[in-house]
Design goal:
With about 80 residues, the protein is an alpha+beta fold. The chain has one domain (about 1-75): Glutaredoxin, CATH 3.40.30.10. The chain has helices at about 10-30, 40-45, 70-75; strands spanning about 1-5, 30-35, 55, 60-65. The chain has a 4-stranded mixed beta sheet with strand order 2-1-3-4. Strand 1 (about 1-5), helix 1 and strand 2 (about 30-35) form a beta-alpha-beta unit. Helix 1 packs across helix 3.
């Protein structure tokens, strides 16, 4: 099971990233668990300085932008 985390304070871009990531995982048929991390201390501890950010199994895949659906699918595979 993939552990997916969306890092950000809850802005529109963070919500968009969460929706796209959920869509991508569902389209790929991946078994996953998704959570949102809003605590700035946790976000900084992961080495992320700009949000939104996508973290898959503890590995930061992208930060500071909302990737396309296809980019997210590539990160999840």
């Amino acid at each position: 099971m993939l552990k997916i985390q969306i890092l950000g304070g809850g802005c529109a871009k963070c919500d968009s990233l969460a929706e796209l990531t959920t869509q991508a995982a569902n389209e790929l048929g991946i078994d996953y668990e998704i959570s949102k991390v809003k605590d700035i201390g946790e976000i900084v501890a992961m080495g992320v300085m700009t949000t939104p950010a996508l973290v898959v199994n503890g590995d930061v895949k992208v930060s500071g932008k909302v990737p396309t659906l296809d980019e997210i699918k590539a990160y999840l595979q």
